[in-house]
């Protein structure tokens, strides 16, 4: 897999960090080979630097085209935005990610938002579609529909 | 319109602003949006989908608020609508139908689509009824009909607005609803226009749809369409409506700005290729219909009297004639500075009576002769009595047509006065005195019921112009008995 590293990126934040590293590397290419090596050593995470070095060692790879394609590939991965009522732990993120990837049957990035005022549940945004599955929405709708009954009950 | 949250929950789609270029923003998301759909930003501002590609929607924003990149947007699944109803009469509104006159909300309005196709041929009728403007030279020489589209064209400060105001006054007094679209002009001018209507007591029959020069290009673009939509509401009630679009060259410039920002390919004078289409689609919505009529007077500004500009010629080709206000005539002191030789009316004459048509033909022929004679005089030639008579009558005709201020003028009285001029009733009178006598006759006609009846009967009993002239030569008391005291 040419871009197997993408499979290890779960969130949009991680993808953004990776994209920044790719852009720094791409820019350094135009300042000479030494500069590229220096950036690879000092400004890129070591695991990713190893991955890039492995790619460079392959003779048929043009590094500038590889970096540009990589950025394009990152941009093309769809983002699933999730707004949750709690801040998820790493384990929770992993579980959510595994579930979503198996449901979407493709690579995605998670964009996690934290908003306690939704009370519970989640708001999901994927490719322009918006689904409010939060408790806040459920309660509000319930209140709107049963307003009279609830107010009468509260009077008692 | 409902708010952002309503559409977010009900339509279930969301987009984000990816790029913002003044009044144009690019949005990612909203997979089922369609062209001309209204979108709402999270700050409750509205926008209109212009076009779409694989990744982005191109949206025209209706406000001047800066739309930040990353802002949320929802679609409404509705094309643009504006509230219409009788409650709009006497109000000054913006192109989205919100009041600008500080008189509170307008209630009982029904939202209708702003961008609709023009009515089909089966819904249309020939232009049959005359539309009096109250401007003598137009009513006599370049008559208009109800349902006609007539372009008003001229340089800045040539009296186009005065002509339009005169027409509005004349028509509102006859029960016509007037919708005045002020397109991208100064706020102060809009205010003055509104106050003018109030001062003349005609505001109850008028509606002003105004956008000012500092409004967003999207809002300015919408102005004439909203005015036409409001006009259609009153037309559907069987009323005659007059729509003034002041002015369409500003509208075209505004559309050019939008098109260039959205990277549409520029054509002649950098205008986009569809500038003809957007104007023609609007102007075609006017006309005479089975039920009611919409008379449309689009205004175009020319530069240094040049009639061959791109937008100007476009508008000429989609209207039923044009009235040209000549800057040279303004400098000669003529008010209104209408050039009858370069003006055209294509359907107005068919609404006239045989007598009116005869009078119009006679005056047109005379004006040509008079103009030739004046040019001939430039050579300093010695002239005979016949030429002197023509020049003398021409000078008097100039006085007759001169209408510096806005006031009422009746067609029958005008024909009578013209008959009097042709019969030589004023041939020996000085120009200043003639002016006074004409004013006296106009005053009498509007105040003395007997005189009005007498004039109307006299004109009604004549078949053609020469009949009027012959009868006045025989007996001129109908005129001279009323002005004799001035002569003494």
Provide an overview of this structure.
The complex is a heterodimer of chains A (156) and B (488). Chain A is of the alpha+beta class and 156 residues long. Chain A has 2 domains: 4-76, no CATH class; 79-145, no CATH class. Chain A contains 7 helices and 4 strands. Chain A has helices at 12-28, 33-42, 46-57, 63-76, 90-104, 135-145, 147-155, and strands at 79-84, 109-114, 121-126, 129-134. Chain A has a 4-stranded mixed β-sheet with strand order 2-1-3-4. In chain A, helix 1 (12-28) packs antiparallel against helix 2 (33-42). Chain A is elongated. Chain A starts with 11 loop residues before the first helix and ends with a helix. Chain B is an alpha/beta fold and 488 residues long. Chain B has 3 domains: 4-79, Elongation Factor Tu (Ef-tu), domain 3 (Beta Barrel); 83-350, P-loop containing nucleotide triphosphate hydrolases (Rossmann fold); 355-487, ATP synthase alpha/beta chain, C-terminal domain (Lysin), CATH 1.20.150. Chain B contains 16 helices and 19 strands. Chain B has helices at 4-11, 136-141, 160-173, 187-199, 217-236, 248-261, 275-283, 310-318, 327-331, 354-377, 385-401, 411-423, 431-447, 449-460, 465-474, 477-487; strands spanning 15-21, 24-29, 37-41, 46-52, 57-61, 72-79, 81-84, 92-93, 110-113, 130-131, 144-145, 151-154, 177-185, 206-212, 240-246, 287-288, 293-301, 321-325, 344-345. In chain B, strands 8, 12, 13, 14, 15, 16, 17, 18 and 19 form a 9-stranded mixed β-sheet that branches. In chain B, strands 1-2-5-4-3-6 form a 6-stranded antiparallel beta barrel. A two-stranded antiparallel sheet of chain B has the order 7-9. In chain B, strand 16 (287-288) and strand 17 form a beta hairpin. The radius of gyration of chain B is 26 Å and the shape is elongated. The A-B interface holds A 125, 127-132, 137 and B 8-9, 12-15, 28-31, 74.
């Amino acid at each position: 897999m040419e871009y197997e590293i993408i499979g290890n990126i779960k969130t949009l934040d991680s993808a953004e960090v990776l994209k920044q590293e790719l852009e720094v590397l791409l820019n350094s290419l135009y300042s000479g080979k030494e500069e590229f090596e220096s950036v690879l050593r000092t400004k890129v995470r070591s695991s990713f630097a190893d991955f890039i070095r492995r790619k460079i060692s392959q003779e048929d790879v043009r590094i500038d085209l590889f970096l540009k394609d990589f950025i394009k590939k990152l941009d093309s991965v769809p983002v699933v935005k999730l707004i949750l009522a709690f801040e998820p732990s790493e384990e929770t993120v992993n579980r959510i990610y595994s579930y979503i990837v198996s449901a979407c049957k493709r690579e995605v990035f998670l964009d996690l938002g934290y908003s306690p005022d939704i009370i519970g549940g989640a708001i999901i945004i994927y490719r322009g579609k918006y689904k409010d599955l939060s408790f806040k929405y459920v309660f509000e709708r319930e209140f709107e529909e049963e307003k009279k009954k609830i107010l009468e009950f509260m009077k008692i | 319109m409902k708010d952002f949250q309503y559409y977010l929950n009900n339509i279930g789609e969301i987009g984000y602003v990816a790029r913002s270029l003044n009044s144009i923003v690019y949005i990612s998301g909203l997979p089922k949006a369609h062209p001309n759909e209204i979108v709402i930003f999270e700050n409750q501002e509205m926008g209109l989908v212009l076009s779409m590609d694989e990744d982005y929607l191109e949206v025209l924003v209706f406000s001047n608020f800066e739309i930040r990149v990353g802002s949320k947007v929802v679609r409404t699944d509705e094309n643009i609508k504006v509230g219409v109803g009788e409650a709009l009469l006497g109000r000054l509104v913006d192109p989205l139908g919100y009041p600008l006159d500080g008189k509170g909300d307008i209630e009982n309005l029904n939202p209708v689509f702003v961008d609709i196709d023009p009515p089909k041929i089966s819904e249309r009728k020939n232009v049959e009824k005359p539309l009096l403007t109250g401007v003598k030279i137009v009513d006599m020489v370049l008559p208009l009909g109800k349902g006609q589209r007539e372009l008003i064209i001229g340089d800045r400060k040539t009296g186009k607005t005065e002509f339009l105001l005169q027409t509005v006054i004349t028509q509102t007094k006859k029960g016509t609803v007037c919708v005045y679209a002020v397109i991208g002009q100064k706020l102060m001018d809009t205010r003055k226009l509104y106050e003018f209507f109030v001062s003349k007591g005609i505001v109850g029959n008028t509606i002003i749809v105004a956008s000012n020069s500092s409004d967003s290009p999207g809002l300015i673009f919408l102005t004439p369409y909203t005015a036409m939509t409001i006009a259609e509401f009153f037309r559907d009630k069987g009323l005659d409506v007059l729509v003034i679009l002041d002015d369409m060259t500003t509208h075209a410039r505004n559309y050019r700005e939008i098109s260039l920002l959205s990277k549409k390919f520029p054509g002649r004078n950098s205008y986009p290729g569809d500038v003809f289409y957007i104007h023609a689609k609007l102007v075609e919505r006017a006309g005479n219909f089975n039920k009611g009529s919409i008379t449309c007077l689009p205004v175009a500004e020319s530069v240094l009297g040049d009639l061959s500009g791109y937008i100007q010629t476009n508008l000429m080709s989609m209207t039923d004639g044009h009235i040209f206000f000549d800057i040279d005539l303004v400098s000669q002191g003529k008010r209104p500075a209408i050039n009858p030789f370069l003006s055209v009316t294509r359907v107005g004459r068919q609404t006239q009576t045989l007598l009116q048509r005869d009078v119009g033909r006679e005056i047109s022929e005379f004006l040509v002769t008079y103009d030739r004679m004046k040019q001939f005089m430039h050579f300093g030639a010695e002239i005979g009595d016949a030429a002197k008579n023509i020049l003398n009558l021409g000078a008097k005709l100039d006085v007759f047509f001169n209408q510096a201020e806005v006031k009422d003028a009746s067609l029958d009285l005008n024909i009578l006065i013209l008959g009097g001029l042709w019969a030589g009733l004023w041939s020996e009178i000085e120009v200043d005195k003639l002016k006074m006598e004409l004013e006296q006759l106009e005053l009498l006609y509007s105040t003395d019921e007997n005189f009005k009846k007498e004039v109307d009967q006299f004109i009604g009993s004549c078949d053609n112009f020469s009949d009027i002239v012959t009868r006045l030569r025989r007996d001129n008391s109908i005129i001279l008995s009323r002005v004799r005291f001035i002569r003494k």
